[in-house]
Amino acid sequence: MNHDTQPYQALAADIQPFFKPLAYALILLRAEGYPCVFYGDIYGIKGDHPYPPSCGGKVPDMCLARKLYAYGEQRDYFDYPHCIGWTRLGTRDRPFGLACVMSNAEPNKKWMYVGLEHKGEVWTDVLDWEQGQITINQDGWGCFICPGRSLAVWVNRQAEGRDRFGRFDEDIYKG
To answer: Are strands 134-135 and 141-146 parallel, antiparallel or unpaired?
Structure first.
């Protein structure tokens, strides 16, 4: 969505609320993604037809996940039409990496490789949409799960920067 396609504008486009987080994850967390974030999706839209921030207020957390963890080789798991995933393996100077899994239907799971250097690590969802934790096995693989019609972004629970998630204050208008 942008200023022309938001509700009540000339080119208004009705986007199902479940789809926006999936689209933002594709844009922000993949190697090919070209980040372009709509102001109204982060801060909400004020005026005669107000809208709250999109994606349950999680767009800033997806931007932060990109900044901190979306580096290195990307491995795609596009083997099922209703559940896809990918991993970013990290780099020498940004070693944490991430695993993203999403579904446009029912809750789902996907076995994905995150690297031998992560064996034994415990990963959790930085968006807090999927509860629980995943332990990376001795071969560098984990079984990553996601809610239905949603996604989860999994990162080592002890990764640098994890304490920064869920702290964005979208109320820039308070005085």
So the answer is: unpaired
Three-class SS string for the chain?
A: CCCCCCCCCCCCCCCCCCHHHHHHHHHHHCCCCCCCCCHHHHHCECCCCCECCCHHHCHHHHHHHHHHHCCECEEEECCCCCEEEEEECECCCCCCCEEEEEECCCCEEEEEECCHHHCCCEEEECCCCCCCCEECCCCCEEEEEECCCEEEEEEECCCCCHHHCCCCCCCCCCC
Question: For the segment 56-109, what is each residue's pLDDT rounded down to a tens digit?
Answer: 999 999 999 999 999 999 999 999 999 999 999 999 999 999 999 999 999 999
What is the Cα–Cα distance from 83 to 112, expressed in whole angstroms?
12
Residue 133 predicted with pLDDT over 90 = yes
Q: CA–CA separation, 66 vs 76, rounded Å? A: 17
Span 12-25, mean pLDDT?
89
Question: Taking the mean position of all CA atoms in its chain, how far away is CA 80?
Answer: 19
